[in-house]
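User: Could you check the structure of this?
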Amino acid sequence: MAIDKYKNCLIIFLEDKPYREIINGIKLSPNVDESVIHDKNPSGGWKKTFNELESNLKLLNSRETMFALLLIDFDHQFQQRKDKFDILLLEQPCKDRVFILGIDAKQSEDLKHTLHITNNEKIGRMLVENCPDKMAEAWENKHLLCNNTEISRMRNIGVFDWLFLSEKLIN
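Assistant: Sure, the predicted structure tokens are below.
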């Protein structure tokens, strides 16, 4: 699917295949406008995901309607990874349109064990089931709590306004 440069879109850089499955679940949710989501192929590691973002900064800076999201494992090093992310974007015009979310565990599999769900697509659907009005309880999980500030930032900048369908359109 081609990206419309005049319409808001979210480019998602994925660390690995489990994040692709989570995004697939999100895109299948009836309250999500999947047409504005463009997920890239998994990079194969958080450093490679950062490198992929870095190689796309010129494009992100040139299109004010393009937003980006990195999905990575924080490996119990959330603050260190967040600091690297912030430094990477420090002087970039697009910095307010780029976000980072992830699981603060060694593997995304840890989230499945904690939530007692064996399917990543189900996790994706569950994470956005009440959006944009209310956040799912799963976000209060110890592996996901680190994301609250970025989620608030996404909401405050207006991403939720175009990422999620209004209740009128769903029914």
